[in-house]
Amino acid sequence: MEPGNDTRISEFLLLGLSEDPEVQPLMFGFFLSMYLITVFGNLLIILAVSSDSHLHTPMYFFLANLSFVDICFTSTTVPKMLWNIQTQSKVITYEGCLSQMYFFSVFGCLDNLLLTVMAYDRFVAICHPLHYTVIMNPQLCGLLLLVSWIISVLNSSLQSSMLLQLSFCTEVEIPHFFCELNQIIQLACSDPFFNDMLMYFVIVLLVGGPLAGILYSYSKIVSSILRISSAQGKYKAFSTCASHLSVVSLFYCTIPGVYLSSAATQSSHASAVASVMYTVVTPMLNPFIYSLRNRDIKRALKRIIGDPVM
Question: Taking the complete model, does pTM exceed 0.85, yes or no?
Fold first, then answer.
């Protein structure tokens, strides 16, 4: 794109998932319901973990933090989309767009890193059970969480500072329901080469790296489970990581696909629809996956709502 007017723009237009007026009320109800389920479900997980002393373990410590991050992750995009639908406005300010992109990147990266840390936790629990409490001590858990936050903030700060170097012309329509980094870069009048290189380098490093770590952890986990002689022992060992494996599969089957497909095709609308999976659906399903397959969480939730625990 040839450089044009370098005057700083004041706002962008979020085109959303559909411009059909008849679809807007349905979309509002649909996304409001999913958002409320996400917030309520993840808050229940946090409350269950914090209120039950039996759940004060590394696995549930990271799960509670994952639930908090999921609430924040969804809250960076869905409330603004609901507001735009309700007010029939597509406007988001330049500062608001950059802020949304910044926090979306922070919590998206943090979600990814926490899933990797949780895979390491399961690896230690199954492959080194006798040393689990020594290795996964409170200091290491706190350090892993702190490092995850630092990496996420540094990554988002770097992406945002690079984005501030770009100039935008009159094309301010974003074919998405939130300010997604790749879509904003494509609107730039100035050369976005370094921004593109940084974005794909980060994807390889902060998505490919953690994914490799998760795959390595589960390869060791599977190897350890296969060495267990009894079928009951194998089932018990696998059941401790089944929920996490389900969430990881859901997460990693959506995010890389969205970015790789947007690079291979020009269908921005398809990318926006696919983004709903990891921005809304995955955070909503996480509490169900962990609570339905976990007796400890179900027992803690029953105590909260006052049901007798058998």
Answer: yes
